[in-house]
Amino acid sequence: MNPANVLILPGWQNSGPDHWQSRWQAAHGYQRVEQHDWMRPLRGDWIARLEDVLLSLDFERDGPAVLVAHSLGCIHVAAWAAHSQNTHRVKAALLVAPPDVEREDLRGMLPAWSPVLLNPLPFKTLVLASSDDPFCSQARAQTFAIAWGADFIEAGKGGHLNAESGLGDWPAAFDQLQRLQGLNRPAANFSVGVAA
Questions:
Q1: In whole angstroms, what is the distance from residue 100 CA to residue 78 CA?
Q2: pTM, full prediction
Q3: pLDDT tens-digit map of 32-74
Q4: What does the alpha-carbon distance between residue 77 and residue 125 come to, in Å, rounded to a whole number?
C-alpha cells in the first residue's frame, strides 16, 4: 500500500508533534488531512475536505485508503461516511478515543458536531478507547462502536490517548493498524503501553 493512502485525521485543534498520529506520519509517510480551521471545526467543511483528499488519491493504482482518526476525527469519519457516495474508496478505519460530542459540555464547544451519526460504516473499523477518557465514557464509546459495526478494544487507563498520555510511537496501536491493512501481523494482547 502507498503510505500516502493512509490518511491521518486529527481531532479538534490538530495533533501536535508529540502525538502518536504525528509520529506515525513522520515515520511512515502517511498523509494528514489538513483542515482550513482547526480551532472552529465545521462538520460540513471537514466532510468536504476529506472527500476532496480521497478523490485526489490514485484509486486505480493504489486501491482504497485507510483512515487513522483521533478524537473528533472519529466523529468526522462517521459523518463523512453517512453523506459520501465514495465510501468504497476506504478499506478500513482505526478510530481512537471518539469524544461524546452530545455531552452538554462538549456540545457547547463543538455545536456543529451533534448529533453523532451512528450509521454502520461500510468498511472494516476498529475503535480504541481508554477506560478513563475525560471526553467519553467507555460505555458510550462501546455504543458508538456497536452502531458503526466496529470491533472494539478497551485500551486500559490512558486518558484521551493523545500526546499527554505518553504513548510515544504507540506500537500496540500501530500493530492494530497493520492488521486492519491486512498485513497479517500476529495477534497480541493489547495494552496502552508507555513511551520509551
A1: 13
A2: 0.94
A3: 999 999 999 999 999 999 999 999 999 999 999 999 999 999 9
A4: 10
